[in-house]
Amino acid sequence: MKKKVYKEKVCKYSKCREKFTPQRFGQTVCSPMHGIYYAREKKYKEETNRLKSDFYEKDVKTRKAAAKKACHAFIRYRDKDQLCICCNKPLGNDYHAGHFHESGNNPLIRYDENNIHGQRLDCNYFKGGGRSGDYEANLRLKIGNDKVDKINSMKGGTIKRTAKDYRAIEVYYKNKLRELQAKESPD
């Protein structure tokens, strides 16, 4: 019986990376010793990745950024076919999820959908954000006086959110985005 000849491979152990011809099916390293080292290396990487994942799941800064990203993605998708809330011009391709009351000083309404609307880049950055153009007048037409008055009354204030809170906000907006996309996609 003829012995099978395998194609040349590169050793998976990171400190070796030499070419070798495998002696059996599934061989990924050039020697048994490198097999031990590679197994340890792989286990270490898996453990490190698990620890990083746990850290980022519990890290407030990371969760806050993810919540903001999910919220703004939902708002941009929701308002994609509308006009700019400030100037009533088409939004264009580089529009933002612009806040009526800035998000930095207003944590109570930072993720409130009634406070965030599609806004042209130039209106948001160069013309004063929520204070630009007819944002408030157009907002009153879009969502009603009661909701605008409620946003105005919630302005300011403080709230201490945990990583778990931000994760819940992120999941909420990702689900809302999926639902909105599902409604618009043809079956």
What does this structure look like?
The protein is mainly alpha-helical and 187 residues long. It has six helices and four strands. It has helices spanning 32-58, 60-78, 121-125, 135-143, 145-154, 163-184, and strands at 9-10, 19-20, 96-99, 116-119. The longest helix is centred in the N-terminal third of the chain and has 27 residues, at 32-58.
Uncertain runs: none
- In whole angstroms, how far apart are the ends? 57 Å
Shape: elongated
State the helical fraction: 40-55%
Fraction of residues in β-strands = 5-15%
What sequence of helices (H) and strands (E) makes up the elements?
Answer: EEHHEEHHHH
Structural class by sheet pairing and helices: mainly alpha
What gyration radius follows from the Cα positions, in whole Å?
26 Å
Q: How many strands, what sense, and barrel or not for the largest sheet?
A: 2 strands, antiparallel
* Strand elements, count: 4
Average pLDDT number = 88
Question: Helical stretch count?
Answer: 6
Strand order of the largest sheet: 1-2
Properties at a glance:
187 residues; two-stranded antiparallel ribbon; two-stranded antiparallel sheet; 4 strands; 49% helix
What's the arrangement of secondary structure elements?
Elements lengths: L8 E2 L8 E2 L11 H27 L1 H19 L17 E4 L16 E4 L1 H5 L9 H9 L1 H10 L8 H22 L3
Antiparallel strand pairs: 1-2, 3-4
Helix pairs in contact: 2-6, 4-5
